Amino acid sequence: MALEDLIRGWDGEEVVVHHDDPTSSWMFIGVHSTVLGPAMGGTRLTSYGTPAQALDDVLRLSGAMTLKHAAADTSFGGGKAVVAVPDIPARGSPARRTLLLRYADLVESLHGTYETAADMNTGEVDMDTIGERTSHVLGRSKAHGGSGDPGAATAMGVFHGIRATVRRALGNDDLEGRSVLVQGLGSVGSRLAEYLHEAGAVLLLADLDAARASALADELGAKVVGADDVVGTECDVFSPCATGKVLTEATIRHLRCRIVAGAANNQLGVAEDGERLRDAGILFAPDFVINAGGVIHLAGSERLGWDDARTAKRLEAIGDTLLEIFEMAERDGISTAAAANRLARARIAVARG
Ligand code: NAI
Fold first, then answer.
1. Which of 24, 41, 286, 340 could bridge to 79 as Cys pair (CB 3.0-4.6 Å)?
2. Can you give the CATH number for the domain in which 307 is found?
3. Are 163 and 175 in contact (CB under 8 A)?
4. Is the pLDDT of residue 296 over 90?
5. pLDDT tens sequence across 206-224
């Protein structure tokens, strides 16, 4: 689709389309909604087949951020950015620094309508570089005045979300002896596994990187599951913490779990997969609600002046929001994914007056 058609078909407020000749990159910033506050969301650094594919990603992802912030009650709106490059410049290289500084100037030109953070292929060192040119960046390193990598907060939010979902589906939130399969043991999944281990869960761990899975399994006394065997493995809770679109018509019929609750973004292949999970008797914790710990941590500690105790309470409240969503889904006879959308949109509608 042409760039113009994609933008006309979008329901957001503002989109910045910037072609940067010196770095041969396309930079897109989607400001989907500022109803609840400045648009906040990460910067994805990656390659695409065409600029239209990159724009399509930014428009879709910025809309999801609006829902995430509304459900998490962060006082931010939804935004997202993509820096689309022919090749991703190596970390620490002069080319990467040049690219990030030019991108930072673009963020700064919006005067705070959009606040950026890390996302796919960007991290706190990149946020430090961006922070040299703009103050509208979250998640810089602590040495540079930021609050660092939000992975631990995301994992803690998912942990509280799993407990709430277990309570709803299985009657109480005691994780002792419950089997939890964590798919993806990166920044979020590895920490989540540690929290679950401390709570007495029986852990099953899977990662494409088999050595990473074995090392963590040895440390936590867990069992390793092959990356290709995740879907058919029996467990109480399946926790996708790797990639999106793991819940599809093809996979849902093979799932052998009572609950799906994990950090990965966009876990449903299509919206109807929320209904398919419901029909299969599987309780799904909607991803943009359960994985909001990172944005809660960034917004709270860097913009709203919260101390650690207040942030911890707000991470715990992810469980309460999920319980509200499960209640709404049952009352209205809809999927939990649809209920989460309804809750977030209702909060935006109230703010709009
Ligand atoms: P990461 O890149 O640190 O770790 C991902 C891990 O998943 C890696 O160990 C990788 O080898 C593994 N993996 C990839 N594909 C796999 C597959 N098919 N099967 C098994 N393992 C696979 O990513 P991170 O930061 O831990 O994020 C995980 C997910 O959570 C992503 O979908 C991300 O978008 C989402 N998320 C992360 C947040 C954060 O604060 N880091 C916040 C909200 C969502």
1. 41
2. 3.40.50.720
3. yes
4. yes
5. 999 999 999 999 999 999 9
Strands 14-20 and 25-33: antiparallel
Number of domains the chain contains: 2
Residue 12 lies in a domain: yes
Probe target for ligand 1 pocket from 208, 224, 289, 298, with the most ligand atoms within 8 Å of CB: 208
Q: Which residue has tokens 């290709």?
A: 228
pLDDT, tens digit, for every residue of 18-61? 999 999 999 999 999 999 999 999 999 999 999 999 999 999 99
> What amino acid occupies position 319?
G
- CA contacts within 13 A on the Cβ side of 78: 25
What's the gap in Å between 264 CA and the centre of ligand 1? 6
Residues spanned by the domain of 224: 151-351
Is 223 an annotated catalytic residue? no
Cα of 190 vs centre of ligand 1, distance in Å, is: 10
Q: Are residues 62 and 116 in the same domain?
A: yes
Beta-sheet strands, E only, within 135-280: 179-183, 202-206, 223-224, 237-240, 259-260
**Is the Cβ atom of 274 under 6 angstroms away from ligand 1?**
no
- Mean pLDDT (the chain) is 97
Catalytically annotated residue among 80, 142, 245, 313: 80
pTM above 0.85, yes or no: yes
| CB-based contact 277:263 (threshold 8 Å) | no
The pLDDT score that the predictor gives to residue 248 is 98
What's the gap in Å between 69 CA and the centre of ligand 1? 20
